[in-house]
Amino acid sequence: AWLRNDLRVHDSPVLHRAASVASTRGLAVLPVYVLDPRHFKRTRHGTLKTGPIRALFLLQSILALKRRLRQLGSDLLVKIGHPEEVLPPLLPKGSLVLTQEEVTSEELRLDKRVRAALAGGENNEGAEVQWEYCWGTTLFHREDLPFKSGLSDMPDVYTRFKNAVEPELACKANEVPPSFNGQPKHETQIKVRQCFPAPGPGSLPLPTIAEELLNFEPAWTDLPYTEEVAEPALHPGGVLDFRGGEDVGLERLHYYMHDTNLVATYFDTRNEMLGGDYSTKLAPWLANGCLSPRKVFEQLREHEIRCCAGRSTYWVMFALGARDFYRFFGAKHGDAVFREDGVIRRKQTWRGGDREFKLWAEGRTGYPFIDANMRELKDAGFMSNRGRQNVASFLALDLHVDWRRGADWFESHLVDYDVTANWCNWVFAAGLAGGRLNRFNILRQGKSYDPEGAYVRHWLPELQELPSHFIHEPWLVPDHEQTRYGKFKDYPPPCVDPSTFNSSTGPTPIQLKLRGQAPGAGRGSQGQRGRGASQQLNAMAPDEAAASGTVGTGDNVRRWRPARNKAHDSATACSFT
After folding, report:
1. What's the rounded Cα separation, in Å, for the pair 351 and 37?
2. With helix as H, strand as E and coil as C, how does 214-236 read?
3. Other CB atoms within 10 A of residue 26 CB
4. Phi, psi dihedral angles at 473 (to 5 degrees)
5. 424 burial level (CB within 10 Å; 0-12, 13-18, 19+)
6. Residue 2: which of 105, 129, 143 has the closest Cα?
7. Is the pLDDT of residue 469 over 60?
8. Residue 563 pLDDT grade (very low, low, confident, very high; cuts 50, 70, 90)
9. Would you call 499 helix, strand, or coil by DSSP?
10. Which of 191, 259, 282, 514 is the most exposed place for a label (fewest CB within 10 A)?
């Protein structure tokens, strides 16, 4: 069983199939994870492909799975190297490779290399090694989609995709289906397959293997970086202590769905900026396969039966469906989601270069709403859905920097990086996936969703003393007042002419209309003239808080923390501290 982005025991298609094969064919089962050095090198843009925050979460997830498998009488063999070199020696004649099916080119090329190595192994024994894919990354199984096998007839717009895949979820954009009416929902026709049961003790019998190989538990210093990379520490300003592992992911799910019933207010809070509880925050565990989307659906259905099915539970379903959409969109379009000209093959001329990208990446653009989000990403490895859409729009459409540099930066830094969710979101943000171009008015967005500037002050200490009416437009502070505001003088001027954005005119964001609220816009641009931009939220959302949102600054404290028992900490040597 070659495990990759499926680091869990519950609802694991690969391990479920492995247990079945072990029972029917009498084969031993060797779960393997390979740390590929190619994932720890620098990309052509100069960033670490797997940055330290994401790497630590991955390491914790690997060690947690190893502990869990040991409880079942099995184990996880962790190897370091290229899978096409590491795996063949482990597979004697008559073996079967079980692995999760991926859809993007890098992963598919790796699969071809591994299969070629197996076919050309010593004595050609690899030719007698079988290969079997298991599908396990999405809420809806690929075989259950109402599209052709190659997905050529799949819609390229999420709402149409959702409505075609599941009639019970069908509705117009920014509306709620009639069955989500605020009443308990005891029955559903939504076609989500049941979770696989976890393998029982002894159901994954290990082959004869050297004990020292299984005893290897990688530490931070074992990660195959080609340069010295320091282990990250927990940033005190981060929304959560994101710790990797199936146990922590399940704990977070139970906290959100049962302990606090926060799912009931998801619609009202999901687009806030501060605090650990404004959205599910399940994305890191989903991205690494520590948590199954079907498990989330299962728990969501329990809430709908116990309490009610309303707009909050619908929008959680909407978010889960968006993850599926990106996965299948990537499968349909292949390498087009990574190309400069995108899916629509529109030739691009990027006027922005290294200077503009550096200002954006370091959070020094002079636009507080953008800079606060970028510093949160760099320091804590996370960013809200609202922030992701705004910073992507700003880089590609206002700074005119190649969108792929932004996607590459996110790949390195996001703790919840998912290849299709990330790259497809970026190609949409750049306007290269077809459909309407959504250029965000970042001044209006900041004033609407962080009206008092609590989020900006949290991440930009040099602006902490600015009054709210200047917090999103610090360039408006009169010269004679600038010395009154602490370190304000250390903040850079705007890198784009502010007249590009008019914060006091234009349509109210649709997310505020949904709640009947006016945006907390604060002061306008004091007579600056410019053109407004469409504020309707793109239905394809970057993280688990997909699609629309509500006004709110979020002054929440972090209430949820992962359990830290002695066994967990002792086995996870590379935890946040």
Report:
1. 34
2. HHCCCCHHHCCCCCCCCCCCCCC
3. 8
4. -140, 65
5. buried
6. 129
7. yes
8. low
9. helix
10. 259
